[in-house]
């Protein structure tokens, strides 16, 4: 009876997963094994050529760039997010308000928020206008359309995803542990380094996964804030399905990106189990 | 918390006892430096420490639920305080070993706190604090998380360890049996003030207030004096001269294993409990008896009606 009930309740989500995830994934796999059509699309014969081309130096460079941009963005999110999460969880009297402020940006679309950043950063944007007006600079600072701007966009977009899991783990920490460490002679920095950070590992790992994976496949931030000059994997894939009209190659790159993400997640999760 | 003034002599075992919410944990946290008093001073060897951070004080604490660091082994937990001081690794290692041997845990030093029993965790917490050789060790209800049998055993061990290391212990508890059995001096606290400080015998036998008398054990209030149940005698015959005696009616007896409790009501209506050897079970409810005690065994407290 219970089993039957479960089947009924799970049916809609199973249908969604099969229709909207599993079948499209199979289509992508299928496309990646075909040949390129003259005006986009795919045609016979079957071929593994697309997979071979992934290892061209050009594409490896894009993959490598995506990797280190995602890594830097993740690291920055952790470094910026940890003090914030620690403050909210341990010292703030207004936890709910601050947590809501952390989540506030989600009320607006990411696209609109990226455009807002562009209005701030571009040559005729607010920052450059003010600095020029104050005669602090002679020419506009190159704040937009470069790799740092892409990283800024990613950090801005994904910071809440590190703050929230970090907050959840720090909040659960027994305050007596911190008292005990202080009592045994640890100054506040040592308490953070030796007690709070090691015991926040589950939150650090969750935050890392939640930021690194979407950053690796990021599309909007590099496209808009990088001005197309900082090409990441997401842009490469998009380009194959539009301008380059090479659907099999785009499909192959997407699948390999997915495999890489699965491998990274599995590795980090296994490591996490050892740690916890 | 109101004003309290407490003076500890070096190397003695003190208990600070009181009901929950009386301010004893706040007192401990102020001595440890985890909370700041709004006024007054805390002196250690004549030197004010009230402005010092917890890690600058020669005082360590054993916390209620041990507060062992779950990610560190027993050895690392005990070494934690030593590593904060500039000591060589060899000194740290030997002192950790010495401390773990003191609490009979050498051999389990590589285990994590989750891999040892509750009593063992308690001893790790003790070793972690003692290894720093503090002037004063604060213990915040350290036995309350243990089961009763283990608690009695730990009481003896704790007292024994205190005697061996010669460090001043300030033991916070709400359990009068713990305080009475381990302490050299007991400080009884209520509603933020110290009601009485003295040896276990003094505070138990000559309590200064009704609160102290009742907090440390059962007490019968008979005609303006307090009498502990274990000094009350009951007999059918008229007792000898020179004792305090009164007539009472037996209400019930209850068997407690090592003794019985006989409940009686005096002619003036006041209830009385006598703790008696087993053969006193023969008394029947409704029977008229003499309830008596020696004058030396009674005590008077201030503020009691009729005293």
Gist of the model:
Chain A is an all-alpha fold. Helices cover 75% and strands 1% of the residues of chain A.
What does this structure look like?
The complex is a heterodimer of chains A (276) and B (307). Chain A has 276 residues and is mostly helical. Chain A has a domain at 63-250: MetI-like fold, CATH 1.10.3720.10. Chain A contains 13 helices and 2 strands, in the order H-E-E-H-H-H-H-H-H-H-H-H-H-H-H. Chain A has a two-stranded antiparallel sheet. The mean pLDDT of chain A is 86. Chain B has 307 residues and is of the alpha/beta class. Chain B is built from 8 helices and 16 strands. In chain B, helix 2 packs across helix 3 and helix 3 crosses helix 4. Chain B is elongated. Chain B starts with 12 loop residues before the first strand and ends in an 8-residue tail after the last strand. The A-B interface holds A 174, 176-177, 179-187, 190, 194-195, 198-199 and B 32-34, 53-55, 60-61, 63-65, 67-71, 80-81, 84-85, 128-129, 132.
List the helices and strands and how they pair.
The complex is a heterodimer of chains A (276) and B (307).
Chain A: H1 2-32, E1 35-36, E2 42-43, H2 49-53, H3 57-91, H4 95-103, H5 110-121, H6 126-133, H7 147-172, H8 175-183, H9 188-199, H10 201-216, H11 220-224, H12 233-241, H13 247-275
Antiparallel strand pairs in A: 1-2
Chain B: E1 13-17, H1 24-32, E2 43-44, E3 47-48, E4 59-62, H2 74-83, H3 89-102, H4 118-130, E5 136-140, H5 148-165, E6 168-173, H6 176-182, E7 185-190, E8 193-198, H7 200-205, H8 210-216, E9 220-222, E10 225-227, E11 233-235, E12 244-255, E13 260-266, E14 271-276, E15 288-293, E16 298-299
Parallel strand pairs in B: 1-6, 1-7, 4-5, 5-6
Antiparallel strand pairs in B: 2-3, 7-8, 9-10, 10-16, 11-15, 12-13, 12-15, 13-14
Helix pairs in contact in B: 2-3, 2-4, 3-4
In total, the number of strands of chain B is 16
Percent of residues in beta strands of chain A: under 5%
Order of strands across the widest beta sheet of chain B? 4-5-6-1-7-8
Could you say which overall geometry of chain A the principal axes of the C-alpha atoms support?
A: globular
